[in-house]
Amino acid sequence: MVVFIRLAGIVYVVFLVLTVGNLLQYLMKKGPVTADKLHGALAGYIMLAFLWAFIYSFVESFTPGSFRFEHVDATDPHAFYRLLYFSFTTLTTVGYGDITPVSKVARMLAAMEAITGLLYVAVLIARLVAIQATPKSNDS
Q1: 140 inside domain
Q2: 103 φ/ψ angles, rounded to the nearest 5 degrees
Q3: Residue 42's domain spans which residues?
Q4: Where would I find the H helices in the chain?
């Protein structure tokens, strides 16, 4: 059963990486900034949180105790949802502190996620503003 869960996690991670990658390619194309692009940017941000949560659960499955959960046993069947919560708080750099990365790998991944969250918002908003602010040429 553990092998199946790990394999499913790998499949989810690969799917989300490909989906977010394709979405970013679409968002970075020239053209008007539409509601479609804004919705895509929001969806990409949410998918990033899920991607990191799957990575964290993968780390926790190989190295139990990589995360310390306050007042909860780490073998709790709802651990993924707690890691999803941790992922959202880390991606948005809120970090409430009730879940703590303990292992070196978990800490490194949490730092990478925080950087990813900051850069995603900063770079994507800058790009969308630049696309919108670029004067349209009159080739008629």
Answers
A1: no
A2: -75, 160
A3: 2-133
A4: 2-28, 35-62, 79-91, 104-133
- Does residue 139 sit within a domain? no
CATH code for position 110: 1.10.287.70
The structural domain count of the chain equals 1
Tens of pLDDT, residue by residue, the chain (140 residues): 678 878 888 999 999 999 999 999 998 888 788 888 889 999 999 999 999 999 999 998 889 889 988 776 656 777 889 999 999 999 999 988 889 999 999 999 999 999 999 999 999 888 888 877 766 665 54
Q: How far apart are CA 58 and CA 52, in angstroms?
A: 10
pTM of the model: 0.85
- The residues near 84 (Cβ < 8 Å, ≥ 6 apart) are 49, 50, 53
